[in-house]
Amino acid sequence: MDRYAVVGNPVAHSKSPLIHAEFAAQTGQELHYEALLAPLDGFAATVAAFRAAGGRGLNVTAPFKLEAFELADRLSPRAEAAGAVNTLAFDGGQAYGDNTDGAGLVRDLTHNLGRQLAGRRVLLLGAGGAARGAILPLLMEGPASLVIANRTESRALELADRFRAGAGDAELRASSFAGLAGSTFDLVINATAASLSAQSPELPPGVYAPGALAYDMMYGKGDTAFMRAARADGAAAVADGLGMLVEQAAESFQLWRGVRPQTTSVLADLRASIDRG
Ligand code: ATR
Known about the structure:
With about 280 residues, this protein is an alpha/beta fold. Helix content is about 40%, strand content about 25%. The protein contains 10 helices and 12 strands. The strands form 2 sheets. It has a 6-stranded mixed sheet, with helices on both faces. α1 packs across α9 and α5 crosses α6. The structure holds 2'-monophosphoadenosine-5'-diphosphate. The site of 2'-monophosphoadenosine-5'-diphosphate (ATR) has 15 residues, from α6. Homodimer. Its EC number is 1.1.1.25. This is Shikimate dehydrogenase (NADP(+)).
């Protein structure tokens, strides 16, 4: 049976084995998908052993997305732009690296949450790997503007400069958090790591336009700190990143198997299991 895995450290908490097992059952694909714990200094060796044993593909999670980028022989344009790889496909002697995170985010926003991005004002919070992976897929939706805001403003400026050539008609600019005062947005995406420590980025009040959605890439049981702060500041709708997780998995599954799984029931099952847990 074709073997796949998610590799990370830690990895025991990963929902990916559950998601891919549901995708496989639903599409009638015969495959085995497991969680692989790699030592912090042993990512390449873990990948090599998996390939030697006939492994066909890997999802890569923290902290190895940059190492996976280095390891790939060929890269998709979106992995190149993200500077990180979350999906590896092994074909003969070649390792193909892709990044499905940003596409998963956009699919969740547009398909699951029914938000069109064309002509909208979008605010992206954060300038780390998670933010960087989202920029090109967001720009490809044709927003009116994309503002990248970060606690450390210089990192946001670097990102805005890097992506300016691909911005098309969208206004792309960087900001500090304080510099957002007086601006409003239709969509605010939290790609900072603040929710990991139950914190929310410290934004000035009033950034949510009427009807705005606040989206946290993190997820958990109940609202994240960012979602609570967004509600308090008048966001009309809030969402966490569970849909992004399922959608990036579906993109990976499609890359490996050539079929696109249905995500609605998988997302509902996962939400129910998290709410129970
Ligand atoms: P990742 O790859 O998950 O994006 P990262 O590269 O370490 O992780 O980036 C973390 C991001 O979260 C950064 O944008 C960081 O802001 P700084 O560049 O100023 O460090 C942001 N971040 C982390 N904790 C935060 C907090 N409590 N409030 C606001 N931003 C935070």
